[in-house]
Amino acid sequence: MTIQSLFLVTLVVDDYDRAKAFYCGDLGFDCLQDEPQPEGKRWVVVKPRGGDGAAFLLAQAADAAQRAAIGHQTGGRVGFFLKTDDFARDHTAMLAAGVRFLEQPRHEVYGTVAVFADPYGNSFDLIEHAAA
């Protein structure tokens, strides 16, 4: 039996340090790797603290086509879902860090959720699943 999992997702950004400051500073992600690569590139991997899901590979745009994709990687849809065990705690901390929420928290049948954006315009759901 083959066991597979999605462990890394590329996120195109304008600047490694700016993106790392947002994800590791404002959102509190862990920086798992930040290694220099040839031609001025870096291998920068960030992941939500304590989570078991995929991490982001922060990839600095290298040309006009990649720069055009910054903030639009999912065509304007919510593309990323940040699961939390305590919505109120994380929502409050993110607001205090200056994270821009696009809506007020709402309660759905699946849990408590609010959409926020990274500095590039990528949309995320902050979500705490309802108890089953």
Automatic annotation (TrEMBL):
Outline the extent of the VOC domain.
5-129
Pfam family name, one: Glyoxalase
Q: What is this protein called?
A: Catechol 2,3-dioxygenase-like lactoylglutathione lyase family enzyme
Q: Which InterPro entries match?
A: Glyas_Bleomycin-R_OHBP_Dase (IPR029068), Glyas_Fos-R_dOase_dom (IPR004360), VOC_core (IPR037523)
Q: Does the keyword Zinc-finger apply?
A: no
GO MF, one term, reads: lyase activity
Keywords of this entry: Dioxygenase, Lyase, Oxidoreductase
